[in-house]
Task: inverse folding
């Protein structure tokens, strides 16, 4: 089973912000190469590739299962409505591919530990 | 020395998004009570308290040193310009208080490990 991870960010008019996401994606690709055959990024708006385009590319590369991870801090409209709608449409388009929408990164209880680590505190 | 942490988020028209930030702040307050006397949140826009108001409150509570942590994922205009400008103004206003602007949470190399942990992978 060829698994893929798609990191989905909001997208910015600032190229540097989008490049930050792409750089993070490359670091993830190095760390998670045993878990995922392909690791790519996509953007909800303002940058390329879009989420549907990102999924299409992964399918064309041979991905059979895609984990979509929203790189968002809070469950606003984008996380609660826009991204699920897009993913549902992609899942209908590629019914032979398993597409899992994961929880947005700010929604985890691990965020507390992450921030403590940033501040140099062990908990 | 009474130290304070101010978690600074963007702010949303959705009350639920702002409440997520406040809930995270309460969890941080429990985890970091040995490191900080006060732990509060503030918002760049669209929600209360504003960043200057948040800093004023902490100073009035007796904070002598304030760590300001931008709860942002990328270094867009808000992180690179707006927040530093506000913090510089507050530092001028309260010259007897040490105000440290910390790196935004998406800027850490630890983000890779955090995401791996979310996906259930040890690195």
Result:
């Amino acid at each position: 089973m060829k698994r893929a991870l798609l990191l989905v960010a909001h997208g910015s008019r600032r190229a540097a912000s989008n490049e930050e996401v792409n750089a993070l994606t490359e670091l993830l690709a190095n760390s998670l190469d045993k878990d995922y055959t392909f690791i790519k990024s996509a953007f909800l708006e303002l940058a390329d590739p879009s989420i549907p385009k990102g999924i299409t590319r992964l399918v064309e590369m041979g991905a059979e299962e895609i984990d979509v991870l929203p790189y968002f801090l809070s469950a606003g409209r984008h996380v609660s409505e826009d991204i699920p709608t897009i993913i549902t449409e992609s899942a209908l388009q590629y019914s032979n591919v398993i597409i899992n929408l994961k929880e947005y990164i700010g929604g985890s209880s691990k965020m507390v530990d992450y921030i403590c680590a940033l501040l140099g505190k062990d908990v």
Summary: The first strand of chain A starts at residue 3 and ends at 9. The helical segments of chain A are 15-31, 51-61, 77-93, 110-118. Chain A touches chain B through 42 residues (CB under 8 Å). Chain A has one domain: 3-118.
